[in-house]
Sequence to fold (286 residues):
Amino acid sequence: MDKYEKIEAIIEQHNATFHQAFSLLPEDKKKAAFSVYAYCQMANDAIDVYHDIERLQDIKKNLKDTFDGQVPDETVFQALYDTIMRYPTSITPYMELLDAMRDDYYNKPIDTEDDFDEYCYKAASTVGLMLLPIMASKAYKDNSKKAKAVVTELGKAMQITHVLRDVRDDLMNQRIYFPEDIIAQHQVKIETLRTGIVTSEFRSLMEFYIDKAKEKYQVFYDHLELFDEDSVLPSYAAAKLYEGILDEIRKNDYNNITKRHAVSKFRKWRLMKNIKKDLKKRGFEV
Fold:
């Protein structure tokens, strides 16, 4: 098994939606996108799986060495080095992702909506910025400011979706990502959530964030022309499939307290058919 087969195995195991969508990319871009995701998964696992801040520091050192051309003898960094050589980029979003993981380790408080927005940026918009030179190579060079703004919004939409999907697991781990001021505004009682009861106040909070996420997804949908022709379908599919989690939460009366929602294989199949129809109507080749 070569390094890219190992990388793809990581993706398939940890994120079936990402794997399904980005498998539609041309081979070179697929390898590059998967290498970025494998790095992100490694950073996430350092804290979520191993709870090891030293492991995160090692990743930081290895990342700097990789960008300096002193590539560690480790599959993920070797694949990542190939990617940054083929698609030159900045180390900044890679480092900012590690900041988000460090915040998780130290359980940094999220008191305000601005705190939450910053966390969503560091945890997910950074991933979009890592992928931008691969998926939108022309815009990355010619219209960088706008392209970065669009993927920043997409990343925030996906992170909000991630937080809503994982409410049950986060409660079990004594972690609340919703900002204190928004919790208070919607009059949600965390003690009540821990009993598994879905209240009208909690539904209001969920709807507030579902609407916010959908607005951010729409920013991305409105600017698909920024993406390379061969990357429109994979990126649009990834967003639509992930957004589908929000619809599952709504459909199940916002009960993400006792259940972790996912989009079924059948619904993904239906969504993919509609995704291709939508893109054809908008004049994109699929």
